[in-house]
Amino acid sequence: MTKLSAGQRHEPRSGSAPRLTSSHSANVPEVRAWIHGYVPRRLDRDRWESSIRDFVVPALLSLEPVGTAIAGRYAHILTWLADWCLGEGIGLDVETVLDPDTVERFVSSGLAECRSRATYRSDLRHMGRALTKQAPWEPSPEPVRRRTLAPPYTTGELERLRRMARQQRSPERRQAATALVALGAGAGLDGRWCTRIRPSDVSKAESGLLVRVGPPQPRIVPVLAAFEGDLAELARGPADEFLVGGTSVSKSRASNLVARLDWPPGLPRLSTRRLRSTWLLHHVTAGTRLPELARAAGLVGVAVLADLLQFVPPLPDHEAQRLLRGDGS
Predict the structure, then answer these.
(1) Alpha carbons 133 and 119: distance in angstroms, whole number
(2) Segment 2-37, tens digit of pLDDT
(3) How far apart (Å, rounded) are the C-alpha atoms in residues 277 and 117?
(4) Residue 54's CB: how many other CB atoms inside 10 A?
(5) What pTM did the predictor assign?
């Protein structure tokens, strides 16, 4: 009887069942029919019919793959694993074949030269957790939700927000709105930080105006030049008050202040998250280096900045090519 050789096993070839398609799980009869008709091309037919089919086909049916393309990938690796187990003297019991130790031994030896090793390991771990009841699989980790960025304001919207801030009916509202815009669009501070800034946190240096930011992620942030005047004026206020909210220490004071502002028709609502995104977009567009931008923004990594790429205006081809060539001239 002919076993799959290492050289033959590298590519996930389907069996002699109907051609693979990308059908969705809604077409369950088609997927089940494909599974029942599956016969691997690179395994002895007698070995398949006598030993392996009765393990692979019920396992595939229980997994309920989301389409024939996924069913084909699962069928290939399950057939490969079952064939390897028989060669190792391991009986084709699902609790044994899909035991974590068996899977890792197979990945280390049976898949040692396979280009799709990582994908197959992931598939087998998924199958083991789904099909076994006694095998000591640890539960899959809960997915970590990445913090997403709110869409930035356009240049026109930001200018209108600044005018709106200056036109508020009371001095308290004018200060709150001006501070929120200046700290958000000028220093990237959203609701986690903007309500904790006092006049003493704003200082003048040779390089320009700086804001000292507290937890989380304490840091010093240079203020964009366009907002230095507003923040310098605000920093002349009472030393014992916050720039946003005066003496209030309420955790919701930023949202409470925003809710009381006067809004002209057609202007998008003021959002500290959108103001922060606007500041980040300015720096991404200007070419600020990512390590420095991440530190100034209090970011642990820069993956979240991918949310802004759709808003970055493209460079002319010649300029993009010059940068990609490393031509600094």
Answers:
(1) 23
(2) 444 443 433 333 444 433 333 344 468 899 999 999
(3) 39
(4) 13
(5) 0.59
